[in-house]
């Protein structure tokens, strides 16, 4: 069986935005078995600006002499210096992190049949679309598989113990064996695929306004009623619907001078037009001008908690707009103007010890921290985008999470696992507001 890993470039809004790296001779490529710190300068007292991913190949563009605490010398790794102790030369490809694994998880629409039968119509492993960096699953009800120390132990039926039922697990590999498919853990242990509940993952993605031409004066909108939203030919509840809009159907909210209260005129991307009720089943972009400090060409993020919509903006212009899920009552997402603190290709997330709603999620991908314990990140465990769902973070569908992650500063050079914002590489501005209210606290200085 051949497993395909898709190298994820710094995907921008149109095509691929290549990261700037030093020019010159072909760089040396090295690899390490553990996380390596990246520092501003080649000595152990310099501030940490990021970390290299374990087992990921990384380029070395230049060398510096050994120092105290670094016997093998330092390597310039595209924005900082890392001690090369414990590293080795490598012929592995250098890729931005995280790499997406080629695997086709079930969709939310397939989840009922999957629960009933234990299977779903997935593509072969080497043809999967590469939606996420890991396969995510958990032990749940009849999905109660045991962990094995290796593939050989699985084939010999020598289990170690059942998986625990609390953690949402991240599996790093999919392996076909004569006894069926198994999933590999980071430590090499394996679990049978049919013994784990694989999280159904939405294929939803927002709208790229550089690649799409909306009707004149229109703004993005989405239907968020799971049972479907009626599209009517007139603002009349008794009218016969011309269509039923599916959950997460993207629309254009059209400008209107005289619309009846509670109604909105919309147009679907295929040109079908009509009227919908605003209450409960719709999310619509609400414009609010950029903060005064934002330059005309500056890329920044605007989050509207009222509509559960996030926009990647350049100055006043919209570039990518999508649905999100923010914090529920008691776990509200804070409003304010923030700066990105750091980015991580993936991050383990867990509740505080005293939490009444404990959780533990392994390797949540595309994480952008903007305030201590608050981040933009992908959510693979629900498809409730457009509704409040989270413990305070801003949840994005996986495809959106990658777009936003790649666009924001600081960039994550190839091979890096994390990057820290610094004075030289400041983090992107993020504004979190409630509706059109823009008088939010300035939290850019911690």
Can you describe what's shown?
The chain has 446 residues and is mostly beta strands. It has four domains: 26-89, SH3 type barrels, CATH 2.30.30; 100-198, no CATH class; 207-284, SH3 Domains (SH3 type barrels, Roll); 299-433, L,D-transpeptidase catalytic domain-like. Helices cover 5% and strands 35% of the residues. The chain has three helices and 36 strands. It has helices at 111-117, 151-155, 398-407; strands spanning 5-6, 28-32, 36-39, 48-52, 58-60, 62-64, 74-76, 81-83, 87-89, 100-101, 135-138, 146-148, 159-162, 169-171, 173-177, 180-184, 190-192, 197-198, 207-208, 219-223, 229-231, 243-245, 250-253, 263-267, 273-277, 282-284, 299-304, 309-314, 317-323, 336-339, 342-350, 360-371, 374-378, 394-396, 416-420, 429-433. The strands form ten sheets. It has a seven-stranded mixed sheet with strand order 3-4-35-31-32-33-34, with helices on one face. It has a six-stranded mixed sheet with strand order 19-29-28-27-36-30, with helices on one face. Residues 1-21 have low confidence and may be disordered.
